[in-house]
């Protein structure tokens, strides 16, 4: 692993929140490479934590007993393989509403810890118990290892944890959004039943292109550096000749469950995500796509800074409505509020 990449990973648990209004190009902060508005967390040995198979966190909301403060979420980290004892699930919230969350970070960076504020907000708005695995990452573990680890986590939920797949929703941001469909396709290939649905925030789906469309036109409005996107895609694929095969957007879409895709109008991945949405719809997938005006890459992360009536919070509301819909709690007409439907 290069010294520069090791340094970048040391920023994953930065303790310096940043304003969502910061002009990335005028800042000396590492925000241009790794989002640094993430929650205050203790320093950890990211590289060591990353290379161990398994590991991650459970996150679930406090009991609705009128006594617990709504901000007092609970989490249970685990640092190695998923436990063999399904009894661990007994005190982990609601087994009738579970989200398998696949974190983003260009396939190379971040972990369940860097996404803890997002996980807690998602758990709070959906009422779901969340499992966020720390899948192994490139360059040490290129594709298909990250996908295989995500499938292993899903297999654990339904085979060891004895959870009903129809009560499970996949979710992820950026690279994790791409892993949502890649994991579904791999699970289907291995004969596993598919989950009830998937939420994809600013999904990275096409690894072959980081220079056309909004990758170029939105460079001044988003924080994603396209040169690093190319390097990360090469690390994930394990070589230029495997970029297309490793691209999550190229999986077989047949039979995939309903999906909610959210992108920001000002982000670099907007065009490629919307092109994929149209292809998924043509393949018969039930896709709800929302474009939020003026928003950047993975804008739900900015909810900790935003007023309740702004798009970052609205994305959580839509996620909650989508989860209700695919779990059979509400009708299609109630599934989305605000945002521009595509």
UniProtKB/TrEMBL annotation:
It comes from the Eukaryota. The active site is at 174. Coiled coil: none annotated. The keyword Nucleotide-binding does not apply. Keywords: Hydrolase. Residues 99-300 form the Alpha/beta hydrolase fold-3 domain. One of its GO terms (molecular function) is hydrolase activity. Gene3D superfamilies: alpha/beta hydrolase. Pfam families: Abhydrolase_3 (PF07859). SUPFAM superfamilies: alpha/beta-Hydrolases (SSF53474). Residues 1-18 have a biased composition (Polar residues). Residues 1-27 are annotated as: Disordered. Belongs to the 'GDXG' lipolytic enzyme family. This is Alpha/beta hydrolase fold-3 domain-containing protein. It comes from Ditylum brightwellii.
């Amino acid at each position: 692993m290069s010294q520069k990449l090791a340094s970048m990973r040391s920023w994953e648990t930065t303790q310096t929140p940043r304003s969502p209004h910061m002009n990335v190009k005028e800042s000396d902060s590492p925000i241009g490479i790794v989002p640094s508005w993430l929650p205050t967390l203790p320093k950890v040995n990211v590289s060591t934590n990353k290379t161990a198979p398994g590991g991650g966190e459970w996150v679930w909301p406090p009991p609705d007993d009128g006594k617990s403060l709504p901000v007092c979420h609970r989490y249970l980290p685990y640092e190695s393989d998923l436990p063999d004892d399904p009894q661990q699930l007994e005190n982990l919230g609601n087994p009738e509403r579970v989200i398998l969350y696949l974190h983003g970070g260009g396939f190379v960076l971040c972990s369940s810890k860097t996404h803890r504020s997002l996980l807690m907000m998602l758990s709070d708005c959906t009422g779901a118990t969340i499992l966020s695995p720390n899948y192994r990452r490139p360059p040490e573990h290129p594709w298909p290892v990250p996908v295989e680890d995500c499938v292993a986590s899903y297999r654990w939920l339904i085979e060891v944890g004895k959870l009903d797949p129809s009560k499970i929703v996949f979710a992820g941001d950026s690279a994790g959004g791409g892993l949502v469909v890649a994991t579904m396709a791999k699970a289907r290939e291995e004969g596993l039943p598919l989950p009830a649905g998937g939420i994809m925030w600013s999904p990275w789906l096409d690894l072959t292109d980081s220079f056309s469309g909004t990758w170029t036109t939105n460079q001044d409005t988003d924080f994603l550096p396209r040169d690093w996107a190319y390097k990360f895609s090469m690390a994930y694929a394990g070589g230029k000749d495997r970029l297309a095969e490793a691209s999550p957007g190229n999986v077989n879409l047949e039979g995939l469950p309903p999906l909610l895709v959210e992108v920001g109008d000002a982000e670099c991945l907007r065009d490629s995500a919307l092109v994929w949405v149209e292809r998924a719809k043509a393949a018969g997938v039930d896709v709800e796509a929302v474009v939020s005006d003026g928003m950047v890459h993975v804008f739900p992360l900015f909810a900790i800074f935003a007023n309740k009536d702004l798009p970052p919070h609205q994305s959580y509301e839509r996620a909650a409505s989508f989860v209700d819909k695919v779990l059979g709690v509400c009708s299609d007409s109630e599934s989305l509020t605000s945002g521009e439907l595509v």
